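Email to the structure team, subject: Nucleotide-binding universal stress UspA family protein model.

Hi all, the expression group asked for a predicted structure before they design truncation constructs. Nothing fancy, just the tokens so they can compare against earlier work. One-line instruction: predict Nucleotide-binding universal stress UspA family protein, return tokens.
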Amino acid sequence: MKKILFPTDFSEVSKNAFIYALKLAESINAEIVTMHVYQLPQANYVNVSEYLHEIYDVTELSNFENYKDEVPVLRKIAEANNLTHIKISHVLILGNLVPEIKKITENENFDFVVMGTKGATGLKETFFGTIATKVMNDVKALVLAIPEHCKYHPIEKILFITQYKPEDTGSFVRVLSLSKIFKAHIDCLRVASPHHEVKDDTREDWKVLVENNEVTFHYIKGEDVEGIILNFIDLHKINLIAMHVYHRNFFEKIFEISLSKKLAFHINVPILAIHE
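Reply from the structure team: attached below.
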């Protein structure tokens, strides 16, 4: 059985993302482990030593109570979506979120990390939005980030953002495997500067891998990479974006895109980060 790690901060963003975790678990026959990571307070005032133990005990108890209260909420989400047959267990960990996610996924061989994320709002990026980009960059498991306004929709159309480089082949094969599970169409897209010379284009090699899968290869020239991709998502009714993690700068830009686009676009499609 495959394993999905679901980090949660008890927010509405996380609860929304949990539906995707459940649906993915059903599709790939996986169990879900929910995970909440908390930190102890930093005590900086004088004569604190005699109170430290009491402060830490109260903090740990509070986190345990919060998590214990959250479990029935997640169970209700499973019930509402007729997915109570999915095996779910829960972990509460003291530490820093990204290192703990990285450690548990490596030690326990998780296949996916599914987590909610918020983009930039006003002048600052929210905590979980920042965390999502770090997890995408650092964690070797497949990371599926669910934006806050993304409502669940069956995965029917996958956009694989690529440079058609040989090192993308492994990621492309993984996307092919997912497309078979979801019975989804794949659009492969490269966006390049009009002045950029195309090298190491693997499209012809990839066509051999495709067999009977529904895959369309696209190549668009333009300077506004993020804008072109967002237009493509909207035009082709994309349900899932997948990309190799060397696009890390794009991860950071995509969550801030609404600022530069004057709120004309909101990224509301799940993003799958793939490592080799």
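The first strand starts at residue 2 and ends at 7. The chain has nine helices and twelve strands. Ping us if the truncation boundaries need rechecking.
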